[in-house]
Amino acid sequence: MNRLQVNLPGLSMKNPVMPASGCFGFGQEYAKLYDLNRLGAICVKAVTIEERRGNPTPRVAETPGGMLNAIGLQNPGLQHVLAHELPWLEQYDVPIIVNIAGNEPEDYREVAKAVSQVKNVSAIELNISCPNVKEGGIAFGTHPDTAARLTELVKAVSQVPVYVKLSPNVTDIVAIAKAVEQAGADGLSMINTLLGMRIDVKSSLPVLANRTGGLSGAAIKPVAVRMIYEVRQHVDIPIIGMGGIFEVDDILELMMAGASAVAVGTANFIDPFACPKLIDQLEARMDELGIATLSDIIGRSVSICSQTR
Amino acid sequence: MNRLQVNLPGLSMKNPVMPASGCFGFGQEYAKLYDLNRLGAICVKAVTIEERRGNPTPRVAETPGGMLNAIGLQNPGLQHVLAHELPWLEQYDVPIIVNIAGNEPEDYREVAKAVSQVKNVSAIELNISCPNVKEGGIAFGTHPDTAARLTELVKAVSQVPVYVKLSPNVTDIVAIAKAVEQAGADGLSMINTLLGMRIDVKSSLPVLANRTGGLSGAAIKPVAVRMIYEVRQHVDIPIIGMGGIFEVDDILELMMAGASAVAVGTANFIDPFACPKLIDQLEARMDELGIATLSDIIGRSVSICSQTR
Amino acid sequence: MIVENMQVVAQEEIAPSIFRLRLSGDCAGEMKIPGQFVHVQVEQGINPTLRRPLSICDVDVENRELTLIYRVEGKGTKRLTEKRPGDAVNVFGPLGKGFPAEVLKEKQTAVLIGGGVGIPPLYYLAKQLVNRDVNVMTILGFRTAADVFLEKEFTALGETVITTEDGTKGLKGYVTDAFRQLPENAYDLFYTCGPKPMLQAVETAALSPGYISLEERMGCGIGACLACVCDLTVPDSQSGKKYRKICSDGPVFRAGEVMI
Amino acid sequence: MIVENMQVVAQEEIAPSIFRLRLSGDCAGEMKIPGQFVHVQVEQGINPTLRRPLSICDVDVENRELTLIYRVEGKGTKRLTEKRPGDAVNVFGPLGKGFPAEVLKEKQTAVLIGGGVGIPPLYYLAKQLVNRDVNVMTILGFRTAADVFLEKEFTALGETVITTEDGTKGLKGYVTDAFRQLPENAYDLFYTCGPKPMLQAVETAALSPGYISLEERMGCGIGACLACVCDLTVPDSQSGKKYRKICSDGPVFRAGEVMI
Ligand SMILES: Cc1cc2nc3c(=O)[nH]c(=O)nc-3n(C[C@H](O)[C@H](O)[C@H](O)COP(=O)(O)OP(=O)(O)OC[C@H]3O[C@@H](n4cnc5c(N)ncnc54)[C@H](O)[C@@H]3O)c2cc1C
Ligand SMILES: Cc1cc2nc3c(=O)[nH]c(=O)nc-3n(C[C@H](O)[C@H](O)[C@H](O)COP(=O)(O)OP(=O)(O)OC[C@H]3O[C@@H](n4cnc5c(N)ncnc54)[C@H](O)[C@@H]3O)c2cc1C
Ligand SMILES: Cc1cc2nc3c(=O)[nH]c(=O)nc-3n(C[C@H](O)[C@H](O)[C@H](O)COP(=O)(O)O)c2cc1C
Ligand SMILES: Cc1cc2nc3c(=O)[nH]c(=O)nc-3n(C[C@H](O)[C@H](O)[C@H](O)COP(=O)(O)O)c2cc1C
Ligand code: FES
Ligand code: FES
């Protein structure tokens, strides 16, 4: 028995750890460092119909315990991804999740349809939470109805399970989670970045050319834990948890809050071996804590607390 | 000329630095460490009509670059504050801001009325953003209409300017800021804490007895900067900025984003002399950066960026 | 109350995961009351964010030295173990109200009951009591023989009983087992510090008045943030207050004053 | 590309706010190409969060030593100055594509133009060129005389011109003033690294092909996050790509290849 195994719709994962979208490209760079087969899954960079140039640089800025990014969904476009990136990933026996984005609902539909037909694509992550583009992105993720309609549209054409990636920049994340669940989402990914900003006091100007950016890293972990915990109480579909995972305990924390698998983003930049290292550390830590199998702890805090409420 | 002077409705401040509500009690503890007259103003702990016991302990938890608190507005109640805390503060020649909270709009009104008649109270901070109480608090701060109605109610009875303290846990902070401005608010305070959570992986239980708490400290500064910057573009009343100020550059950053004065919260716990130290460092840093007077930089990023838009 | 960058004089692991840290600095001279604590900033900057409360274990005023004994629990204490002689450790203190030694007269007898890292503050107390010619009897509880620390130091000051949960040293059982065996007139006052269940058991078993020292997660450490409150068993008749702040009203309370 | 905890051998301020850091570790043996860089984690943990890109300034393969020269700009480099011999510094590298030394043949002449902390990578390049029997001419620009560093080292390798903005040493003016004075056939190739305006001016003034090294704020350092892109002047005819990643396609580019 594999104690690290977790199973989510479309995703049979030998361990719960995947790199987070946008922090791992399409895998080719990190493949130079380690065997990607060690990963539980791979979530690739957002794909849009057309190639995107993204935002002007500087695109990243450091903040206390975190970082801001405003990449702006730069990607080579659907055709290129279909022709090059996804075929390249065929050499790996790891579930592939494709993060998709667009300006119009129609764009999402087209990308979802095409991508979900690719044989090595296991699931789609519907990005309705990118804070760094003017159109699309977060605009779809802040209202339950809009989010639900987009989910329906994509579900109608997708051959694979659809995970909706939620934005934390909302008053009521539970309402949005419920709406997309009802609209047929197979799972949720949460959280995307918090909208933030840094100003360089020497110039009085924003550090990022895009002015604002998405806050990620250790700093946002408590927000991720809270949101996953809240959503877990009200929604039945599984959650891929992310936001500030740097240590093996962070994985357990997000899973206890309700995540069935986790994604690691910013930590890859600080330690390029972050994902395989965390995976390697899991079992020893489970032994210390008396955790038999990882699937036992999914949402454990929620169930314990609901008994003592 | 005092280069550090800033003027806001009801607040003539010899420097822009005040301790943030809830992080400084009613001043008596820090008065043992330094002369409170060195502060630009003092913002005291939330006051409610009745005494409040607050939440069970543990009430604080550490997070990467920040902390969670779930004090739950513990305070000795209006009468005690009127009889003891505010009179004690009369010995200081510093503007006093009283943070007020309640379960019902009527509660706010009563506290505001009473407190604003006290002669050494310069302004009221309307707390519609406490994430740690079941009733009142944040419930008033997440919808523009509710926030506006409460603001009107309090403005109608207050003898002193009213600053509305906004919650960052919202989809659209600008909408709320605009609504309370229209409702007659004299200023805004932002930001209160982000709702967060930590789970102890040994017990699978939330670290805080209240389960969730408010995230403060350096980790949230980029969110504060972004929100102040956004609100500054759409609202004319002054902003008291707070969220993650630990260094003198953080003060300048929040002011460039649009704050006319700042409040320091969590930093007091790490360095009990944080406020006077920051005040002492301001002028030297202004010299390095070529800032003549602090009031020059208020919202400077917003105005520069709007020219280059 | 002072904030000072103290200098590490020595750091030593005296039992598994238990470290003795000797710091030197002017503020050592201020640390006069046992049971008070210092709020330690393990590292400049934000990692970790908060200070850590640690009890004053010993003070050498002449040499301007403060001794702390701490157990490695999490990030902060882990990081503290990496400090080497010469390194700076930022200390804020002394904080809180400590154990009153002066309530006992010459030749009276105090029993000190400590468990785990509740033991360190009792050492400085024991020294002060002995200085006042008070008889000191100590009961120290550990999990197992290997965990025992400060035994020699306490023995030098008076009769010292060790208990271990597994019986590998001293009496097998808990400190309260040893405490209960003391006859009614064996002591005039007790002082105790340790984990909550131990404090509750000691309070229940006690045949005299006493003082207990409590722990709680803290923010400010000086009574401003209300992170660390505990309930009074009987509201204060003067102020009507229903609670106490452990950091500033405590950490030491009269047994029975607050709910444990 | 390796991640390794290298050990500080020496740290020295060689000009105001300019530090030379010598690190030892196995990965030094991998650092073969000048103009490549390492991504340095200044401190374990999250303070600061990101790694800092610093150019390879020199490598001593036999002694497993890597030399970096950096200027104190902000938090990270400030913190780096506190490292003492024996301390660990986590290094990820070598990263990126460096200066091609092999494009020049024996007896050809290279001119190296460096400004400020653009100078360090040119030193390792100069050494390799000299090893290949290429003539090396160097133009180094500083603000003022006190800021000058590595002059002696470069002079040992070939003709070296210093320029200072205030004329307190060498030629008064910018590196481009000295560069423009070179006659048409004085050099076969130029290599340059420094602030953007300098690179632009050098590219404009150049009478030969050349290579430039760019800077940008980085996340991953290996081409995965797209933080550090710059535009190609002409889209790649093969892939149709319109951009390059400074961390993995650069930081060194053929002059004219990308927009500065
Ligand atoms: C008045 C007082 C005196 C103390 N004296 C000693 C002593 O002399 N020796 C000793 O070993 N321990 C003592 N403790 C406990 C000590 O403060 C904690 O073990 C320590 O703070 C844990 O920090 P950490 O970084 O190892 O753990 P982490 O889990 O990383 O700490 C996270 C946060 O929780 C707080 N925390 C965790 N455990 C405790 C606890 N038991 N009490 C209070 N805060 C806690 C930390 O201060 C920090 O803010 C004392 C506690 C108090 C309140
Ligand atoms: C490929 C490359 C090679 C470099 N080689 C050297 C060198 O050999 N010597 C040297 O002194 N400097 C070099 N730099 C610049 C150096 O990386 C920055 O000065 C340094 O990162 C600043 O960090 P800080 O902590 O001092 O500043 P902070 O302002 O605290 O840095 C905040 C963030 O911005 C980034 N940043 C700030 N300035 C720059 C910059 N100019 N370039 C890239 N990122 C920046 C930091 O890496 C960090 O992520 C190089 C940059 C690049 C891209
Ligand atoms: C540089 C960068 C690029 C990102 N790009 C994407 C993206 O294309 N699509 C997406 O859904 N999320 C994107 N994200 C968000 C991450 O997938 C993740 O949700 C977030 O960073 C929180 O996780 P972390 O704290 O572990 O980084 C990006 C994050 C970073 C830092
Ligand atoms: C322990 C604690 C108690 C607080 N109590 C209050 C309060 O009573 N009323 C209020 O408006 N804000 C309260 N706050 C929020 C702060 O005033 C401030 O808005 C927030 O902490 C962000 O600033 P900081 O990052 O500098 O701490 C509290 C914050 C902390 C940490
Ligand atoms: S720790 Fe702040 S009141 Fe006790
Ligand atoms: S730094 Fe990530 S792509 Fe260059």
Automatic annotation (TrEMBL), chains A, B:
Major localization listed first in the record, in broad terms: cytoplasm
PROSITE patterns recorded: DHODEHASE_1
Annotated catalytic residues: C130 (nucleophile)
Pathway involvement of the protein, from the record: Pyrimidine metabolism; UMP biosynthesis via de novo pathway; orotate from (S)-dihydroorotate (NAD(+) route): step 1/1
GO molecular function, one term: dihydroorotate dehydrogenase (NAD+) activity
Protein name: Dihydroorotate dehydrogenase
The record's free-text note on cofactor binding: Binds 1 FMN per subunit.
Domain Dihydroorotate dehydrogenase catalytic: 4-286
NCBIfam families: PRK07259.1, pyrD_sub1_fam
Domain of life: Bacteria
Cofactor requirements of the protein: FMN
EC number: 1.3.-.-
Source organism (scientific name): Evansella caseinilytica
Catalytic activities: (S)-dihydroorotate + NAD(+) = orotate + NADH + H(+); (S)-dihydroorotate + A = orotate + AH2
Gene Ontology terms describing biological process: 'de novo' pyrimidine nucleobase biosynthetic process; 'de novo' UMP biosynthetic process
Binding site for substrate: K45, N69, A70, I71, G72, L73, N127, N192, T193
UniProtKB/TrEMBL annotation, chains C, D:
Binding residues annotated for [2Fe-2S] cluster, in chain numbering: C220, C225, C228, C247
Transmembrane segment boundaries: none
Names of the cofactor(s): [2Fe-2S] cluster; FAD
Superkingdom of the source species: Bacteria
Name of a matching Pfam family: NAD_binding_1
Coiled coil regions in record: none
Gene Ontology molecular functions: 2 iron, 2 sulfur cluster binding; electron transfer activity; flavin adenine dinucleotide binding; metal ion binding; oxidoreductase activity
Swiss-Prot/TrEMBL GO biological process terms: 'de novo' UMP biosynthetic process
Domain FAD-binding FR-type: 1-101
Subunit (UniProt): Heterotetramer of 2 PyrK and 2 PyrD type B subunits.
Protein name, UniProt field: Dihydroorotate dehydrogenase B (NAD(+)), electron transfer subunit
Provenance organism: Evansella caseinilytica
